[in-house]
Amino acid sequence: MSQLIVIPAYNEAGSIGRxxxxxxxxxxxxDVVVVNDGSTDQTAQIVRxxxxxxxxxxxxxxxxxxxxxxxxxxxQRGYEVVVFMDADGQHDPRDVPRLTxxxxxxxxxxxxxxxxxxxxxxxxxxxxxxGRRIGMFFxxxxxxxxxxxxxxxxxxxxxxxxxxAARELLGARFFDFHAxxxxxxxxxxxxxxxxxxxxxxRTSGSSFYSALSALTYPLQTLLLLVLAVVQARLPGARxxxx
Length: 242
Prior knowledge:
single chain; alpha/beta; Spore Coat Polysaccharide Biosynthesis Protein SpsA, Chain A; 7-stranded mixed sheet; 43% helix; 14% strand
């Protein structure tokens, strides 16, 4: 089954080389593409020297737009499974085969590499500031309110989805790729599952979360959740058959 790993990257020169090396060493038969989201450091050069294909956006368009670019690339080239991983080294590519097995064995359309389920839950939570833990709980609660299904880690950047779910998302009209995407897919009849992962510490670069985003992001998420519900209820093309 053809599988593509999409890695969005913005100014990740300090980690992208290690991430790509780890992907090569992992036991997964996957193609890889880096979506270079307007990086101004050496990210593009490092990716090029490693011989990995990259999609270069003209400027920094943001995480969600980078993911959508990779999603469209995967769909246009007929990949059956799409994997999203972050470029900061927090995700272990050796988890990809295990999450892929969960995707197939459980009949899911999307599997989230979750930091908040399984044996690694407490360890992952201990690495997160209290404010973010509260935020994660809030997003999980709102996802359950809007979709009827509890998702513990709505903001994980480690996701695996089938092509039919990828095609569905290309027609959606919202831009964040976290809680609202999960709600949208669930309401459209797709199956979303979680599988435990252990998230590593970021060793370089900086997170897109800031003190200001701690105030604005929950409000933005609520708005996007409402839009996702409206979009999911609109008449449109039916879900692809398995």
